TrEMBL record:
Keyword list, A-Z: Cytochrome c-type biogenesis, Membrane, Transmembrane, Transmembrane helix
Pfam families in the cross-refs: Cytochrom_C_asm (PF01578), ResB (PF05140)
Protein name, UniProt field: Cytochrome c biogenesis protein
Record-annotated membrane-spanning stretches: 12-31, 43-64, 76-98, 205-223, 243-262, 508-526, 538-560, 572-588, 595-614, 634-657, 677-700, 715-733, 740-764, 779-798
Biological classification of the source: Bacteria, Pseudomonadati, Bacteroidota, Bacteroidia, Bacteroidales
Residues annotated as domain ResB-like: 74-191
Originating species: Proteiniphilum acetatigenes
Amino acid sequence: MEKLIRSLSSYRASIILLLIYAVGLATATLVEKQMGTVAAKMLIYYSPLFLFLQLLLVVNFLLLLSRYHYIRRRKWTVMVLHASLIIILGGALTTHLFGREGEVHIREGESSDEMVIRTTRGTRLEKLPFRLELIDFRLHRYPGSESPSSYESSLRVHVDGEVRETEIYMNNVLDLKGYRFFQASYDPDEKGTILSVNWDPVGRSITYSGYLLLLIGFVMMFLMPGSRFRKLIRSLRELRASAAMATFLLLMMIPAPFAVAATGESQRTALQYVVPPAHAARFGTLPVQFRGRIMPMNSFSSEILRKLHKETSIDGLNGDQFLLGLLSMPQQWMELPLIALPGGTISQRYQLPEEHAAYMAFFDKEGSYRLLPELQQIYHRPAAERSSADKELIKLDERINIFYQLLHHTMPALFPRAEDPDHTWVAPGEDLSLFVGEDSIFVTGIFNRYLTAVRHSLLSGDWQEPDRLLQELTAWQLDHDTASLIHPQKIEAEIRYNRMHIFRQARLGYFIFGGLLLIFAFMHLLRERKWLHYASNALGIAIFVIFLFHLYGIGLRWYIAGHAPWSNSYETMVYIAWVTVLAGLIFGRRNSLTLALATLFGGVILFVSGLNWMDPQINTLVPVLKSPWLMFHVAVIVAAYGFFGISFLLGVTNLLLMSFSHATDRMMFRIRELGIINNLSLLAGLALMTIGTFLGAVWANESWGRYWGWDPKETWALITVVIYSVVTHLHLVKRWYSDWLFNLLSVLAFASVLMTFFGVNYFLSGMHSYGQTDASSSVFVYIAAAFFAIGLLGVVSYKKGIRYLVHGS
C-alpha cells in the first residue's frame, strides 16, 4: 500500500494520468462520431472508470501537496490553481448527481407548472413550485431576411400567491426559486415558446467559485515573484541578449492580384464596353439590403463575384464593374465562361470546361435546364447519403440560380418600404405593386432608366445622366428609410474597408519585413555587427506599424458589423494572425528571431484566411451569439492559439539547431535562450486557453443553462489544456526531461490546437460541425505531411543533438 501511495504521489504519475485522460477524451469524441452522443456519455464520460480516473487526478495532487510540502514552501500559485481545478471538478460532480435539466412548452394564452425531463431511461414530468403563463411570443428577424435576430417570451409568473410579469429572451434569464429559465426555441407558427430549465443552485455556485479562483491563480502566476513564469523571466534576463539562427524559411510566394485572362471571342466582345472605374465606384456606394443587413453595392457585388467566379476580379474588372456590366448587358454576359465549376466528373458528364462555364451552357437548345434531372434525384436522397459530387452539384446549382436572379433583377433589394413592419426592401424585379402613388411611378421606372442610361453612356462616354440617376435613387432611399437602417458613415467605412484590402496588405508586409528580419537574425548570428542591430530595430518598428494597420482593419470590421469580428472561421483566422504577431512583439524584445518567426507565421495565417474556402463576408449574428460572454470567450481562447503558434515555431527552430549545428557553447546558449522564450509562450498560452475554455462554459450556462455538455468542440478544448499541461509540467520529472524532448513536445502539442480549431469543425459531429469538404480534406493532407516531416526532424535532431543535450530544469 505504501508503495502504491508513493507511486501515486509522484510527478510521473501526474503526467501518465493526464495522458490517459486526454486519450480517453479523444476516444470519446470518436465514439460520438460513430455511435452518437448517448453512447459516448454512457461508455466514457459518465462511466465509473472515467469518474475514477478524475478522482485519481485529485488524489494525486493532494498527495503531491503533502509529499513536496507545498504549504511550507509557500507555493501559493500552484496551490490556488490546482485547488480551483479540484473545486471545478467538485461542482461538476454535484451538478451531475443533483442537478436537473428539462424544458417547458407553453402556448400563448396558456400556462404550465411542469417541466419535461429527458434522460437515457426515458421522459418524465416534474412539478414546478409555481406556474408560468405565456402572454406573448415575439420573433424578431433581421430586416428583409428570414434569419432570426431575437426571440422573446412575455410571461406572467404565478408564485406564492403573487403575480408578476417578466421577459425571457436569449441571454436574458429568469431566476426563480433556484430554477433558471432560458429562451431555447419556439413553435413553427410562432404562437408558442420552448424554455429550457435548469435547477442546479449548489453545483453552479461551486463551479463558478472554482472559475473565479482559477482566474486569481493565473493572475498570481504572472505577478507572484516565486511563480515559474516569473522565474523564467529572471532566467531570460540573466542571459545576455542575442540573436539565434533559424535554418528554415516560412516564406511563401505572394499571389499576384487575381486576374482572369480573356478566353474566346465571346468574352472579348462582351468586355469591349467597360464601365469606367469612376462611375463604378459611385454605383458601389448605393445602399442595398442583403442577408438581413444594409450594405453598399460594393460589398454585394464583391460577394456575388466571389460566389459565381471564385475570384475577386474578372479580366481586370472589379465587382462593381462586373455587376453593372451584367445588369446592363445581360445577353453578352450570359455567353461568358463566368460560372466556376467543380471540375472532375461533373464537367466530364455535362461536357463542360474544367474551370468556368457560361450561363447558357447549362441549358439545351429547347431551353431546358440540363442539371434538373440529376438534382431532382439528389434532393430525393437523405442529406446524410449525398456524396461529395452531389454536394458540389448543389453548389453549382446555387451559383446558376444567383445568376438567374441577377438577370431578372430579383436581387439586390433597392427600395425600402416605409410602411413595412419588418423593414423589408424590395428588388426591382419583385412585386412593385406594393408601392402606391408617386412611389409606384418612381420604383417601376428608376432602375430601368438607369440601366438604359448606362448602355447609352457605354457608347457615348458621357456619364452625367447615370450619375444623376444614381443620386436621385440614393436620395429617394434616404427619404423612405423610416427605420433609419441606412448609416452613411458605416456605408463609407465599409467601402473604405473593401477597397483598402487591409489584411492582404498586412500579409504582404508581414512576409517582407518578417523575411528580412529573419535574414538579419541569421547574419547577426554569424557575425555581430552594430548596423545589423539598428536594421533589426528598424524592421521591428516597421512590423509594429503593420501590426497597428492590421488592428485598424479588425476595428473597422467591428464597427461595420456591429459585433466583435471573430464570429466565423475567416474572422477568427484574422484575429489569430494579429495575436500571433502580438505574442512575437511581446517575446521578441530580447530576441529578434522570435519576432521574425511570429511575423512570418502571422503572414501565413492571413494567407490561409484569404483562400477561396474561407468566406470573408460580414454576416449577421444568430441570437445565441449575441452575448458578451461569447465575445470574451472567443477573444481569450483564440489569443491562446497565437502563443501556442509561437511555441510551435520556436520548437521547430530549436530542433533544427540541434540537427544541423555543432555542439558549441554558443549554440547551447542560443538553444537555451529560445527554450526559455518557448516556455514563457507555452505558459501564457495555457493560461489563456484554460481561462477561455471556462469563459465558454459560463457563456453556455448563461445562454442555455448548461455549462458543460461534452460537445466535441469543448472536449477538444479541454484536451488541448491537458496536453499543454503535460508539456509545461514535464520539467518536474527530471529523469524524462531534456531540452530536446521539451522542444519536440511543444511542436507536437500544436496538433491538438489544429484539431480543436479545424478538425472538430470538419471531421467530428456536434454543434460546431460544418461537415467535411474537399477543401478541408486537402488542407488536412498538407497538415499531415507537415507533421510527418516534423517527426523525421525529431528523429534527426535526437540522433545528432542528444549527444550534447543535458537534462534541463
